[in-house]
Each structure stands twice: as structure tokens, then as C-alpha cells.
């Protein structure tokens, strides 16, 4: 039996995956029994290459995916376990990964996760200690052999895991400041260790082709890309259209079409199955490495979709791609449209405004000036601050007057939460602790809708705002140059200024690593 890694390594294979949504309750519960029956059918179906099991999908508490996955794995089917950062901190995630490794699960889909929407006796407190890139980096380090605890003065390297690490991406976004940061983050996910990519649910073939073109043109040609096909129904179309599922868009035009079809005698069933089959054909035609079927709850539905797709002629997908183009009015595209096919034209980027003055505030301009004159390495103020903090009574806090100035100024200007490991210079002087619901330090999550955070009360996403600020300065390409960042929670409540000057925060460590690389190059050249 081939593993998922082996299947992904064979470019001639077109893979079929199915999503199994976990349920609330134990394995003996009615819903779990239904899920197990479905899983048994999937195990027996040779056309299904792997089964993906969700982790508290939609931010709801559910049975741990490992429990549903164990009988599937032992029956010989490949399983991908979803692992998200919303309910576990980095230690919990590492612990979960060791458990998966020990139980024989070698495939993980690493995601930030949806913001919790439910919980026993009230809403659960979200964790988001790290994000998808932090998790991918952690799993990659485990694959390379994580440094363990010291024993008898020696650091013992832990055994290497063999995870196939998957990641999710989305480009079904409205605004330039959403689409481009998503592409930049995708590159960072692959650089951090993601070995295969699944795209978000979407119904626009031009955007789908654009993703393939972008990956081909930006060093990700060999990274297997799996297309998301969601079997719609009338009810689900309403949910998606109302924006009830973060990051999933059903445009007005598609919603109206689905409503019309939904009024037929079979409530649109045949139409929805054919739509899914056409999407499978489009992904195959565009060179995706397989499809990920969601919204399906029975094997006959899957067999029907795959059967319809088999009945198409080899070039039919081109016509389907023209039909299934449900973008949002005014949506941004990275590439121009190829007039002949209606798909992305990879040799021409779409025209876009040269600059942006949106979100460029006086605070931003002052912050830039303060950073270059006071905090950048080598400035007179930074040299003085380093000495003052080093010789203060408590070097974690620095001199009391300086600490008071830091606390007041940053609270007023940025609503600082005193995390001590400051990301302001990474995010165009926007604080991820106070202005991002998921504390995202490595780029946007996939949950924005028309540029706004999926969580009420947060307004425009900080990464959209950061992108527009950098675009104003002509530096938008550098938005994610700082990635990956994993925040040191041990610095919470200490002075971020002292931590920067005394080399304890992530920014100073990165600068030190850069300096070490630069100085070691001539040494290497001498040898
Ligand atoms: S120190 Fe932390 S909480 Fe304060 S502004 Fe910087 S990132 Fe935000």
C-alpha cells in the first residue's frame, strides 16, 4: 500500500481525498456511528486515496480526529489529521504531534484554525500561541530532529518524525491587499516546510488557474497542489453566501443560480453533483495533483461525482472553466485575463494602482521615524538604551522612567498589550496582540471577508492595512520578509525596548543571525 508521501511523489497520479468532519460526542454516539459507517465505506473504495479528518471544524468542540482516524488507518487507508492552533499552545501541539507520530499517523494538515464560536458554558478562549507557519516550522523541526533536553551535560537530539506536512491557501479574496499577502504567505509556508497545498473552497476558475500559475512562477512548481471541491446544497449555499463560514465566498450570481436550481423537483441535487464533477474536471485540466472532496456525506455521492467526471471528454473542462467563474464584483486578480480561455494569463500581471495612501496615518509616519532614529541597531539612542538597560536594577524592565515612557507611549499609540516581544516593525507598526483576533505574526489567516477580520469588532485586517502602508512606501514586496516569527511568551510583561536592545527578542536575534552570516562569509571564503 503506497503512503500519501509516495503518491504525492508520483506526478502521473491524480489523487482523490475526502473530508470526514468529526462529530460532537463519543465513538458510541449516533453521529459518530454514522461517521464511522461513512468512513468504512470510504476505506473500501479504491478510488479514495486518503481521508482527511477535521479538528474542531468551524471553531466547535468535537471528538478528537485521532479517534475517528485510528480504525481507518489500521484498515490500511491513508489519513490526514488536521491540526489547528486555536485550542492548543505550542506545547500542546507538539504533544499532539508526538502522539500522532506514535500512533502511526504521518500526515498532518497544519492550519491556524477558525476562531472559536462555541463552548460548554459559554464561548471558549482561543489560544493562537503560534500560527500555521509556526506550526509548520515546528513539524519541520520535528522531522529534522528536535533538540531535546540536556542529559548529563549533553543535548540529546530527539528521534526524527516523518510527517508529510500539508498547508492550506486561499486566493478567493476581493482586495489586492488580501490576495497578494496570501500569495506571499503561501511562499513562506512552502519555505517553512509545507510539502503539499490544498486551496480553500472557491468557485472561480480564473482564480483557480491563477493559483497554479503563481506557484509555477514563484518556485513552487513541484509542490503538489490539491483542488478543493465542495458539494453544495441549497442550505450550504445560503450559509456560504451569508459569510457564515470564514474565508468561503459564494457570490450573489452563484447564489442566485443555486437558488433557482434548488427549486427543481430534486432540490438541485443533480445540478450540485454536476457542478462538483465539473470542478474536478477543471482541476485535472489545470494540472492540479488531485481533488479534496468536501460536503459529501455518502459514498454514492462521491461515486456519482467521479462517474460524471469520467463521462466528460478530455477538453470539456475548458468550457466548464468558462462557465464556473463566480468572482466577486471588483475582485483583484494578480494576473490579467487570457481573452482566449478566460483564465489567468501568466505572462502579464494585471494593472494595479502604483501606490496607496490608505491606512497611512500620522502614527505610522512617526513610528517609522522613531524606529530608524531610536531603535535601529547602531543608532546613538539604541547604544545609550543598551547601556542603560544593562546597568539598570532589573535589566528585564530597564530603568523605571524609560519603562514608564514605553508603557504610556505604546499603550496610547498602538494599544500595546505588553507582550515584550514586539512585532510592530514587522507589521508596519500595527500591534498583532491588540488588533488581530488571532495574534497573527506571519501574515494573514484566511478568514477575511472584503478585507475585514472574520471576528466582529476588529475592522480591516492588520495585514491588509500593513500591505497598504508598505505599498505607499513602495515596499509591499517586503511584507513577509520577517517570517517566520515565533513569539517568546517568556518575555510577557517585560520591557520590549530592553529586550530589543539586550538581544532577547525575535528582532534582535534575527539581526544577530544576519550579522553572523555576513561576517562568516569572508571566513568561509578564506578556506
Ligand atoms: S510589545 Fe507586543 S503587545 Fe506591545 S505593541 Fe509590540 S507586539 Fe503589540
Describe this structure in words.
- With 527 residues, the chain is of the alpha/beta class.
- The chain has a domain at 362-523.
- It has 19 helices and twelve strands.
- The chain has helices at 4-8, 30-44, 65-74, 90-103, 132-144, 176-192, 205-217, 234-241, 252-262, 269-285, 299-311, 316-323, 362-375, 380-390, 400-414, 432-435, 462-472, 496-501, 506-526; strands spanning 15-20, 50-53, 78-84, 107-111, 147-151, 154-157, 164-169, 196-199, 225-230, 290-294, 335-337, 344-349.
- It has an eight-stranded parallel beta barrel with strand order 1-2-3-4-7-8-9-10, surrounded by five helices.
- A hairpin with a 6-residue loop joins strand 11 and strand 12.
- Helix 10 packs across helix 11 (299-311).
- It is globular.
- The mean pLDDT is 95.
- The structure holds iron/sulfur cluster.
- Residues 410, 414, 416-419, 422-424, 431-433, 496 line the site of iron/sulfur cluster.
- Residues 410, 414, 416-419, 422-424, 431-433, 496 line the site of iron/sulfur cluster (SF4).
